[in-house]
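Aim 2 progress update. The chain analyzed this quarter is reproduced below.
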Amino acid sequence: MKKIVMTAIIFCGLALTGCNGGNTDKGLPATGGERHTAIPEETPISEAFNQKDQQIWYSLSPNDGTPGKDSIPTIYVFQDGNAQVYKSNGLTMSKITKMSDGEIIKNIKESEKSELSDSIDKRIQELKQDKERDQKMSEPLLNSSQIDAAIAALEKARTTKLKVEPQPYTLNIETDSTGNRTERESLTFDTYFISLPDYSMNEIGDEYFSDTVELKEKDTENLYFSSGYAKFEVCDQWFTGVYLTGLGKEGNYFVTRDPEKTGELSFILDQPGAKGVTIDE
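Predicted structure tokens:
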């Protein structure tokens, strides 16, 4: 990554969260009555994302302050110009600090698989109950063979090996009135998630059942970044990045783990002329 050396006055009053207690105001040493922090590594986020090795980033809500050890993030994985988003399924930041990136990816994929299996079990049980209730009626409304076909399709889906591929992402910067300075930057990519079909009642009371199960659904992920150094500490590890804005995410943190554990790594928005980044589109 490109490095730019500079020093800046500390921004936004850094609040730090440890593992064994609440927030601790332990900024870097004060100098001459003013508190300063070195920011020797500023990296445009396009360079941070576009690496051959996997890059894991975390989106967190600040809630009543800076994210801490009990915060549960949404997890984003970048590699070779592609991205994918995952639910962390209860994986807290304190647990993340004790895991390697490979262990984190394995954990969220196993949790996703387990969640799918549980959903299939629940859906099959609901279908069986519908069939049993219907058969007790004097004039059954449901087609028993259709229900059996739906159950068979769900059982087959349980053994399907699902692989949701990361998708190419785009970055776009929005400039000020001069067109020379970035005001915010957006990240957009398609994402596929695993979902079971709904069986909905139609107007005459019959239910629709399918003998196939489409598990992959498509959505589009849109994130908007604003300027500012987003940083916090959990269990002696630093997470650093940028802030999110808009779409109900105003002030959310979008961060990655500082491999040096110093808190000195910082990220900035791309500026006009950045390679592979569109402008005002």
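The chain is about 20% helix and 35% strand. Residues 1-18, 21-39, 200-208 have pLDDT under 50 and may be disordered. These observations will guide the mutagenesis experiments scheduled for the next reporting period.
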